[in-house]
Amino acid sequence: MATPQETKNAKQELDTLVDRNADSTDSNLRYMAYGSRLRTAVQAGHRYVAYTSDIGEAFRPVVPPAVVKAAYSISWLYLAGDVGYEVYKARRRGPTPLEAAHFSEPTRIAMVAVKRAVFQSIASMALPAFTIHTAVKHSKKAFDNVKNPRVKAWGPTATGLAIVPVLPYLFDKPVEHVTDAAFEWIEKQIAERKKKSDS
User: Fold this and answer.
1) CA atoms of 116 and 123, how far apart (whole Å)
2) Which InterPro entries does the protein's record reference (predicted)?
3) How far, in Å, CA of 85 to CA of 90, rounded?
4) pLDDT tens, 8-63?
5) Backbone angles phi, psi at 177, to 5 degrees
């Protein structure tokens, strides 16, 4: 979000360019449009970074194992960053009155981190990897009788890649629901235990 001073400076620069009848590609203002488009693309697509491992898994039949391992590394780095970001947001937001009454700050932050890590590990790594691996493995059998060597080699990879865009829709909501229910139960148990120890 631009500060009022930045907005004022941009408006002054725009007014100056208009007064000079400058071409729209003759200033740094054109980069604002690029930045806006980039921000939209990043916001929409950042979730798919977690599925880099699944893209690697889809390419497993045609690339060296090191490429697949590198793809998994990228996914795990994304997950670690996502957990860190959730913890950062939780610290900045602070506890709700209910959380403050029942949990110490380290416990609250640990719960946020563990909950997000469990969600990401299941929804972004385990289930998608199993799905892609299974699809590629079974589609290999289907492509075994194909005469064209390119189709035979790349068919399983194309099958795996075709599944990747569906993965967030397939797993995110159900895993989120189960994770939320499990952690609500855990939080309730911790709160009850604390209540008993306080009395």
Assistant:
1) 10
2) Mitochondrial_18_kDa_protein (IPR019560)
3) 9
4) 777 777 667 556 655 555 555 555 555 555 565 555 556 667 778 888 888 888 89
5) -60, -50
